[in-house]
Structure prediction request, 331 residues.
Amino acid sequence: MDRNRFAEIAARFSKLRLLVVGDLMLDEFIWGKVSRISPEAPVPVVDVTSESYYPGGAANVARNLREFTSHVAVLGAAGQDQAGARLLSLLEDSGIDTAGVMQHEKYSTIVKTRIIARHQQVVRVDRDRRTPAGGPHLERAIRFLGRTAAEVDGIVVSDYDKGFVTQPLADEILAAARHHGKILAVDPHPHTSLAWKGATAIKPNRSEALHAAGLPPSDPVEPADRDQALLEAGNRLLERWQPKNLVITLGEQGMMLFRAGEPCYHVPSWARDVFDVSGAGDTAIALFTLGLCAGADAREAAELANLASGIVVGKLGTATVNAAELEAAMG
Prediction:
């Protein structure tokens, strides 16, 4: 994609309206330095210098979209706890519509804590009790979806298998997108059996794609378009899920686009430096969806998503990218 085409597509971003559905999380980063090993166990002692917090999971998808348009809403659950209050505050301060965030005293906000020392992740601590499936939150989610689907240009589902996205909700999302003619992009979790047949786009990573396709784990092959396991997974998932677009992210190899009846399209990685892969998949699904909603074809949207992912992995923390960075990276 050249700069003129990018400018044409990017000019439409600010008018787009997006809804993100999925598992909302709070990403906590504890920054420090290591100067000694603990006398209690062979582990490093991290002297904490600062802490920072970011919206994570589906909330990070919304945060990525918010860099390009002011019309972003989220549909998910959070607890009535300190982490939930912090998460909602971060989202609201970013200008993201939180009317679809359901809080309940029985929920616990999902928190992922990463301890970083000298630009290296030392350990990650997860606090992620599952959201109870069904019940009042499902009914409220369906009502919110019914009010919102007609007003947005696209819907992004970010499923981290924490309980918010169930098959009944998935069916309602599919039906709403189909009824209103909306773009629907899904970032699925490999350990769920949710059906997303007919979605505009589905985006697993390579290992998730192999697992979902019933294939054993295997190492990537160079070049990617000769990776037989990858190609087999792509073809199986096209047949099973029947999306218009299947995008498989490949880490340092970029991503592969599969469409029924067409040759697969490999987009090599743009990344120059990799400091932190946290949230790179969120960036990819956000930019692919945004591109499609702005009139890009599938190949152009994949190129945008790949470029954006290559930028964020060069940043520390759960990072985002903006239009100016995308344009500058085109050279």
About this structure: The chain has a mean pLDDT of 93. The first strand starts at residue 17 and ends at 22. Residues 213 and 233 are 5 Å apart (CA to CA).
